[in-house]
Design goal:
By secondary structure, the chain is mainly alpha-helical. It folds into three domains: 87 residues, Tetratricopeptide repeat domain (Serine Threonine Protein Phosphatase 5, Tetratricopeptide repeat), CATH 1.25.40.10; 66 residues, Serine Threonine Protein Phosphatase 5, Tetratricopeptide repeat (Alpha Horseshoe), CATH 1.25.40; 76 residues, Tetratricopeptide repeat domain (Serine Threonine Protein Phosphatase 5, Tetratricopeptide repeat, Alpha Horseshoe). It is built from 15 helices and no strands. The protein is globular and about 60 Å long. The protein starts with a helix and ends with a helix.
Length: 241
């Protein structure tokens, strides 16, 4: 019996590692996704999906890859498929809202997050995204309240502090804005988006040199790769070569 189990296990391992197997493509896609090689990751996940493996998770992973590639139509198609399949994970609500937010579909994102929060009322990530989306939709006080609630759930959530910094920036309270963004950077000094925000805040206070340092740090940390060319544009317009 023991030998039989060893033979079966070895067979299963060979099948999973075979370069034409569905599991091989799925696992390779996940590895590439973790390396942030989103385009080849999406191709491998597509091969896995074509072989009908991993169901909803493969579609969710592929949509996640499409998001930083700005392939919004493809991400939305995967998310629509997931909705048809009854997907209700908080990852689904989070990703769907981010795709909508990136396209400035603020009300759609708010609706998605509201639905997600009904299912996951104690999820600090959803509250943080909800707060930021409300701020981007010019509902500043609603966003502020959501971010405060987010930090009650998790006082170390650095993204919420960064978003609070952006709230205070919109209110032209630059001292408080800088304080919140720097608090975010204390928790996660690799947060390129916080350096992006810090650049705008320091520029508004007249600290042009500080703003340039912040944007250069954002660029170094990969902002222009992960988001868009905004930081490069600000560097070019304000900081010379």
């Amino acid at each position: 019996m023991k030998n039989a189990l060893i033979i079966v296990s070895a067979f299963c391992l060979l099948v999973a590692c075979h370069p034409h197997s569905a599991s091989y493509h799925y696992n390779k896609g996940q590895d590439l996704m973790l390396q942030r090689q989103y385009k080849p990751a999406a191709k491998e996940l597509s091969k896995a999906i074509a072989k009908n493996v991993k169901g909803n998770q493969a579609h969710l992973d592929r949509a996640y890859c499409y998001y930083p590639l700005k392939a919004y139509d493809k991400a939305t198609a995967d998310l629509a498929y997931l909705k048809e399949q009854g997907e209700t994970s908080f990852q689904y609500y989070s990703l769907k809202s981010l795709v909508e937010l990136d396209q400035k579909q603020y009300q759609a994102a708010i609706n998605t997050l509201s639905e997600g929060l009904r299912a996951y009322p104690d999820n600090h990530f959803l509250w943080g995204t909800y707060g930021y989306t409300q701020i981007e939709n010019n509902n500043l006080e609603e966003g502020y309240k959501a971010l405060q609630h987010c930090l009650k759930l998790d006082s170390t959530y650095y993204i919420a502090y960064n978003s609070l910094g952006w709230y205070h920036y919109q209110k032209k309270d630059y001292i408080k804005a800088e304080e919140m963004v720097k608090k975010s950077l204390e928790i996660d000094p690799t947060n390129s988006y916080a350096y992006r925000n810090l650049g705008f805040i320091l520029k508004a206070t007249g600290d042009a040199a500080g703003a340039c340092r912040a944007w250069k740090r954002a660029e170094y940390l990969g902002f222009s790769t992960d988001y868009d060319n905004e930081v490069k544009d600000m560097l070019g317009a304000n900081c010379g070569s």
